[in-house]
Amino acid sequence: MSEHWRLRLPLLCCTLPNRCLEGKKPIFTLPEFSSLLLTCYFSGRQYCLPINLVIVTGAESKERRKTTEKTATGVQDALSVRKLVAPRNRSAKTLSKLALFLRFLKPVTWIPVMWSFLCGAVASGRFGWEDLAGWKFLLAMLLTGPLATGTCQMLNDYFDRDLDEINEPDRPIPGGAISLQNATILIAVWSVLSVIAGYLIEPLIGFYVIIGIINAHLYSANPIKLKKRLWLGNIIVAVSYLIIPWIAGVIAYDPEFTLSSMLPSLVVAGMYTIASTGTMTINDFKSVDGDRQNGIRTLPAVFGETNAAIIAAVLINIGQGLAAGYLLYTGQTLFGWITALLVVPQVILQFGLIRSPRTMDVRYNAIAQNFLVAGMLVSAFAIKATQQ
What we know:
Elements (H helix, E strand, L loop, with lengths): L3 E6 L2 E6 L3 E2 L2 E2 L8 E8 L2 E8 L6 H6 L32 H9 L4 H14 L11 H25 L1 H7 L12 H22 L1 H18 L10 H23 L5 H25 L4 H6 L5 H5 L1 H25 L3 H9 L2 H12 L1 H31 L1
Antiparallel strand pairs: 1-2, 2-5, 3-4, 5-6
Helix pairs in contact: 3-4, 3-8, 3-15, 4-6, 4-7, 6-7, 7-8, 8-9, 9-12, 9-15, 12-13, 12-14, 12-15, 13-15, 14-15
């Protein structure tokens, strides 16, 4: 009995290895085992049965010890053994420092901001093909991609580390690959570099970068944490992803802008911001479970996934429809109709999204976003045409 715990059942005697006996209640401590060989003696014969174990603590361990007995027949149900597994070593998956850093910066999120800057540059009327290789454009791509957007993503991961424990436990901070101290240093350095890069392009853009970083704090950091406040979170992200970089693109290539020359870009970028608010809602489907547990009031968490998908589709279509209508109103008929036609395939894809938001969200964004961003560039060329 010093090395084994003997469990007696009617007509059954089995011996289980046990390393810890505490008082009268045996407590399993088998962190090294994922399976166990159970030796049983029945009617004078020995049987060896392999069983799987998973480690639990607290209330779950009590449930494991519960048994249910049937009456009359004298037959007892099998022991209710819950599967218990040792905690996963999340940092076991080793990445190079560069790969880890890129994962922290979330490169997939850079593209919309970089594209918005490009659209603003085209809309300025002073951007040509030769500018694609110019130092200003290359520095702007570095700013709107890995620098400013990367800073905002690192801030979001830093303040959302508790949520990511549920939604994305393999992210660098909750996964243990990057410490909070190192994350703080990276965020500080990247913030300074972002402001410097913006100032070098145009001093006013450096100020815009500061606004974007402040927006990232407002979105993710307590006590304000706008992502908890239903519409406000998606709106501030849409503004940061679309209006700010679009206007920055105009300023970069038309530093002597006037309100009248800026107005078409403000109107069109504002309308696409409405559409972008819808796409931000689609991004919330992947984290709806964690958001509900932590009181994050996203549209899917508050209104349900199907209703949120409908709301997102309406916003996406209205925003682009208004942009197309504005182009038609300003006399850019061809550009207006092209922008309107680009909405049609998105509407078709939205039927599948509404039927199954959680399984179709990635597919929808991967396909439908191409038509939306194409409409943005078409609108930018329309604004350029009005400047000439």
